[in-house]
UniProtKB/TrEMBL annotation:
Keywords: Apoplast, Disulfide bond, Glycoprotein, Manganese, Metal-binding, Secreted, Signal
Protein name according to UniProt: Germin-like protein
Domain of life: Eukaryota
Function, as annotated: May play a role in plant defense. Probably has no oxalate oxidase activity even if the active site is conserved.
Family in the record: Belongs to the germin family.
Binding-site list for Mn(2+): H111, H113, E118, H160
PANTHER family for the chain: GERMIN-LIKE PROTEIN SUBFAMILY 3 MEMBER 3 (PTHR31238)
Length: 226
């Protein structure tokens, strides 16, 4: 009898493992609300596909990443993402490329990509970069000062940043493991949300006076992600 119970336990464990390994594909947008009327439906996890017979080289091509971008803005950086919106052939391929220009002492502020990891290479200048691990890992800070040719990886979902500590501009290129990795800039989302988060909530969370939160919420929060 004990042998039968043991065997049954193994079967249940095997089934649980099988179910755990099967999951829905990761979403490529923030949310997807179900609708009953198909005429009101939009695409999900990508875009509608062109007939493969009609595809051509231009569907897989983009030009212009050699051109420096304008960094005259409050954060001193400009992110140019080459994603599925610019290269239609990226649809379903799960990759994105970005050029990031940094003014002297400019930064790509703390942010996260909810749907993709990032690998960054510096091609000009110097960058101080880093990411913070999860609460479960003790919110450890991982940082490096990168020179030309150096590479750094930001794991999916981790809050990360880049800062140019020099008097000269810097340029980096980044690859992301999603055709639409998404970007959540921490300050923008917390203090510039639409509509505003109740300042009592943020005052308690940040352990500061309410007037500090209200002042931050009145600021203009610039989006450097183009």
């Amino acid at each position: 009898m004990k042998g039968a119970h043991f065997l049954l336990s193994l079967v249940v464990l095997a089934l649980a493992s099988s179910i755990a390994s099967a999951s829905d594909p990761s979403p490529l947008q923030d949310f997807c609300v179900a609708v009953d009327d198909p005429h009101k439906a939009l695409f999900v996890n990508g875009k509608f596909c062109k007939d493969p017979k009609l595809a051509n080289a231009d569907d897989f091509f983009f030009t212009g990443l050699n051109i420096p971008r304008d960094t005259h803005n409050p954060v001193g950086s400009n992110v140019t993402q080459v994603n599925v919106d610019l290269i239609k052939g990226l649809n379903t391929l799960g990759i994105t490329l970005a050029r990031i220009d940094y003014a002297p002492f400019g930064q790509n502020p703390p942010h996260t990509h909810p749907r993709g990891s990032e690998i960054l290479v510096v091609v000009e200048g110097t960058l101080y970069v880093g990411f913070v691990s999860s609460n479960q890992d003790g919110n450890r800070l991982f940082t490096k000062v990168l020179k030309e040719g150096d590479v750094f990886v930001f794991p999916i979902g981790m809050i990360h940043f880049q800062f140019n500590p020099a008097h000269a501009p810097a340029v980096a290129f980044a690859g992301l493991s999603s055709q639409n990795a998404g970007t959540i800039t921490i300050a923008n989302s917390i203090f510039g949300s639409n509509s505003a988060i109740n300042p009592d909530v943020l005052a308690k969370a940040f352990q500061v006076d309410k007037y500090v939160i209200e002042k931050l919420q009145k600021q203009f929060w610039y989006d450097n992600d183009n």
